[in-house]
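Please, structure for the following, as tokens.
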Amino acid sequence: MGPNVLSFTHLSGSRRGQTDDVTLPAFIGSRPDLAVVVPETAECHALVFDRGGEVVVKDEGSGLGISVDGEAVKEAVLRDGDVLELGPDGPKLRFRKPGANRPFLQSLQWARPEGPVRTSDLFGLLRALARETRAHTSHPFRLAIVVLLGVGAGALGFGAWHSHKLRLEVARLQDAIRGAEKEQGLFRARVEEERQKLHEERRARETEAQEFKRRERDLNRRLSLARAGEVEAVRNDLEAARERLSSLETEKAAAERIIREYGPGVCLIQGSFVFVDAEGRSLRYVLGDDGQPRRGPDGELVLDGLGTGEVRWLEYVGTGFLVDRRGLLLTNRHVAEPWWKDAPLLAALARGAKPRAVSFRAFFPRETQGLNLTVERVSDVVDLALVRVDLRGRKVPVLPLDRSGRAAVAGSAVVVLGYPTGLEAVLAKAETTAVNSIVEASGVNALRIAEGLAAKRLIRPSATQGHIGDVTKTDIVFDAQTAHGGSGGPVLNRNGQVVAIEYAVLSGFGGSSFGVPVRYALDLLSRKGKRGG
């Protein structure tokens, strides 16, 4: 190990017994391209860097926290031998500083993983023995040790086994890199697809307006040439065309005013959750004898902290909007609690498992960073939730709610604000150079992409227009285009009042969309406690 190289020894977790040598600055997290990879943590959990000759560790907004020698910290100076814990009951790492003067036996003790020694720990212990022997003994003594270790055939076999293991690890990393590159290519393709949709929608609106203007001119010409018996019919057609053109222009103006006044109060919500059992183990898929995820008697996938499959992970985006200057936002319950109707997760939660937020943030158009969210209340009747954000010192407009209960009428025009199709649509509205810069820096990590968009002030909701098709006790049906990611967005009437909160799209029924009537939101706002009606 060179004079400026630091090391982290994994005392627990899936990489228990392994040591990572790093140079500063170095990131710690679950992403495979980081300097210290710890699979059970947030993607980018912590940063270790040099500050005035001191080695400092800093929480990178993991949402899980870090502690040094049992003390929770956001940022701390590391000393030789300190134990860094990543999250509550999370993996532990021993920090080692080069050139530190310490007893030989203490150095060996520091390299020992937690708990009983396992067969899998032997290589790490031997490596630590070699490292400390080199640092604390003379050359002849080290030579004798090397000779003794090289005599046994077992050592040769062990070396061959480890070489094979390394080759498999390299192959796994190469597969991971190829998979990441493929996923990034598919993500770019989705962004380009959304860009084309935006162009087509804009052309369609322009074409419709131009067609009505052309029809108006044609009817004016026909009116001047019409015979006495035809004048009335042509005049009626002309009046209808003028009314439709005027309606289009009025709706367009209303939409422009609404998004100008209230768009900054509509946030993109980004969430990432893992789930842990009562012992703090991440829930994983249980694999059958065929290596595939096993299903229970009810046909649902089985999750367990002792499973050997992939960790159950939820990552998504949705929409929310400010309804109270104290920092209260309305959104869907399935955005605030994405496990709400997930049968395997609900079964695990009933057995004592708990959700753990890696990130749950709101990104407002005028803010350059995400703001942490907490759930205030949820409805047990409809898909609606109230969440809280700290907005002190920030100017975010509050969206007015229709408190009369009479503003939603079948046939009336509505404007829907939100983030349909998620981050792809937001990126599609940005310049290609900005998109490339963000994707290159963030890969396809939703949180990092959202942070990159916010830093460049590129978070802006989409506005789609339509009309209410039906109003029932529990639903408002409308035809404004939307998609996943728009869930939780406000549905506003022409006067800028929220009449519903979008929650579902039924693509097989003429593209109809559904919203929760605003009266349920008013009821939720008036209640106290975690649950609402």
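The first strand starts at residue 6 and ends at 10. Residues 64 and 87 are 5 Å apart (CA to CA).
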